[in-house]
Design a protein that fits this description.
α3 links the parallel β3 and β4. This protein has 223 residues and is of the alpha/beta class. The longest helix has 15 residues. Strands 2-1-3-4-5 form a five-stranded parallel sheet, with helices on both faces. It comes from Streptomyces albogriseolus.
Length: 223
């Protein structure tokens, strides 16, 4: 006896470049497990559209007219939003400082515009599932480049309510390592890593791994 059909991931695409937006809509709409429920060309329209159609994921550009992607992300997924929408930021690498701000604003992940289609689709599925999407290499370059600007002074381990082992795991998360890579580095099981990650997020009142990375850099735990 077959189960009920799985509802497709409902996606809104927001990008002010018509060709880029059309390409994203075409790629996403061709997937049997995805449905594009709307597209728009600026952040204000994205906020309004998401309010009407309640998508699972908004694929969001950063630099746009009327309202940029950072402010739109804050309105859709920020800490004060009662019913947040998941946002996947897609940008060019030379705008990486804006992506950092978008992650702080509540985005669940980011990808580069030159990423292959399969990575984009994987990113949408990952974010829709409730997980965060962080490309390890881009994470190192992105947040690491701005560590000196975003890190407050004189804030160290003493103020962080984590055990030494949890701090170690947090540093590895901030370095962009996956659970399997952390497990290999610390010679522990992936299930143990998952337990550590869950404890870290709970103790620090963080939503996901993206927020954990930002937290680690702001506290000067990695450089």
């Amino acid at each position: 006896m077959s189960g009920a059909p799985v509802r497709p991931v409902r996606v809104v695409v927001c990008d002010d470049q018509t060709l880029v937006r059309t390409g994203l809509v075409t790629i996403i709409g061709a997937q049997p497990d995805m449905e594009v429920v709307g597209d728009c060309a600026d952040g204000r329209a994205a906020v309004d559209l998401a309010g009407r159609v309640r998508p699972d994921v908004v694929v969001m550009d950063v630099r746009m007219p009327v309202l940029d992607g950072i402010e739109a992300t804050r309105l859709l997924a920020g800490s004060g939003v009662g019913d947040p929408v998941k946002v996947l930021v897609v940008t060019t690498f030379n705008l990486d400082e804006y992506v950092y701000e978008a992650l702080r604003a509540g985005a669940s992940g980011f990808l580069l515009k030159d990423a292959p289609p399969d990575r984009l689709l994987h990113g949408i599925r990952t974010v829709a599932s409730g997980a965060a999407l962080l490309d390890p290499e881009v994470t190192r370059q992105l947040v690491g480049r701005y560590a000196s600007r975003i890190r407050p002074s004189d804030r160290g381990d003493r103020e962080i309510p984590l055990t030494p082992r949890e701090l170690e795991v947090l540093r590895l998360i901030a370095d962009g390592l996956s659970n399997s890579e952390i497990a290999a580095a610390l010679v522990i099981s992936q299930e143990t890593v998952k337990t550590f990650v869950s404890r870290i997020l709970s103790k620090l009142h963080l939503r996901d791994r993206v927020q954990a990375v930002v937290y680690a850099y702001r506290r000067g735990l990695v450089s």
